[in-house]
Amino acid sequence: xxxxxxxxxxxxxxxxxxxxxxxxxxxxxxxxxxxxxxxxxxxxxxxxxxxxxxxxxxxxxxxxxxxxxxxxxxxxxxxxxxxxxxxxxxxxxxxxxxxxxxxxxxxxxxxxxxxxxxxxxxxxxxxxxxxxxxxxxxxxxxxxxxxxxxxxxxxxxxxxxxxxxxxxxxxxxxxxxxxxxxxxxxxxxxxxxxxxxxxxxxxxxxxxxxxxxxxxxxxxxxxxxxxxxxxxxxxxxxxxxxxxxxxxxxxxxxxxxxxxxxxxxxxxxxxxxxxxxxxxxxxxxxxxxxxxxxxxxxxxxxxxxxxxxxxxxxxxxxxxxxxxxxxxxxxxxxxxxxxxxxxxxxxxxxxxxxxxxxxxxxxxxxxxxxxxxxxxxxxxxxxxxxxxxxxxxxxxxxxxxxxxxxxxxxxxxxxxxxxx
Length: 420
Ligand SMILES: C[S@@+](CC[C@H](N)C(=O)[O-])C[C@H]1O[C@@H](n2cnc3c(N)ncnc32)[C@H](O)[C@@H]1O
Fold this sequence. Notes:
Layout: H1 5-20, H2 24-34, H3 37-64, H4 72-87, H5 93-106, H6 113-126, H7 135-143, H8 147-157, H9 159-168, E1 177-179, H10 185-192, H11 200-208, E2 212-214, H12 217-226, E3 234-236, H13 243-251, E4 259-263, H14 266-279, E5 285-288, E6 302-308, H15 323-326, H16 329-347, E7 350-360, H17 369-378, E8 382-385, E9 400-401, H18 404-407, E10 413-419
Parallel strand pairs: 3-4, 3-6, 4-5, 6-7
Antiparallel strand pairs: 1-2, 7-10, 8-10, 9-10
Bound molecules: S-adenosylmethionine (SAM).
């Protein structure tokens, strides 16, 4: 029973995502490291493809099985095979089907082998079309976003923009990186003439040595908005894993001033330390606390405070396609309570004349504009200022927003307040 290692890896990754709420961005590199070059691409394609098409594939499965209840491992195996049969031209049908049947045996679901084979053969014979009850269902199924999220976005952005957004969420984002304190002139020169997509292994090697750092453009934008002026002290309230913290440090001209970051768990701060050391960040301190409860500092001691808040992450679905299945509508309300409490605590630490920057990687107004408007209504020592970004990112209300469908960037929100 020979099964392609790529399909075994994809099955194991998808199972972990389903059962442990793990992230593909963490699991894929771990599995790919152990695969031969030729299997890596297929494992990547199948894993992300199934995640980006899961609702669509499940609708097909429902139709092919007349709504039969299916064991979750068996369902994952059918999703993997259907994805290949429907979307990958170069895979022979018999290879996808045989491996699916063998994977069923490998997963100790021997009694389901005949069923898996029959469902997949039926698909290749009938190639069924899907019908939808309404436009919302069509967008939800075709783009594989849960119906509640599609409905929510339609209320916020309108139907056409929601469809564009949902389609953009399934596109492969390009690989962004930035320079670090260790980027030499020679490295900058060598990068000038290279096509990024063709030079991934070169980039990976540079990143391993801290000479560049992989960071999405919208995340970089937050650090640029912070843009510390000379001799400003700085506090990053939720700094792990440290992408913005280490970039603000790189951009900063501040010397001998407080440059502090913190997060909920010591374990996450270890990652911040590792990243900061790797990219050559300097003169910083880190500490753990629960920012929702209490921040261990005297009031009004920092010139600039960033709260890059814990959020739903709906702006990062391009990079984390599984997020849409993990989230429930009630999570947004819970997160906004948390965001509101942390923002309030963080604001106390801002000096008179200082700045408070609030950001999320969420597209939801409950986590963004609504939080900021409530904060301003309750804190008259603060007023809103325009974040220093190019005009195209500014909203009518003076916040900064990026969108996958409009900017080919993750969906971030940035607000800036000044303290009187
Ligand atoms: C969006 S992430 C921050 C990303 C980070 N700024 C970066 O650029 O790498 C939000 C962070 O908030 C942290 N967090 C969640 N609840 C917290 C709390 N109550 N107190 C402190 N940090 C918290 C999470 O552990 C997570 O690291």
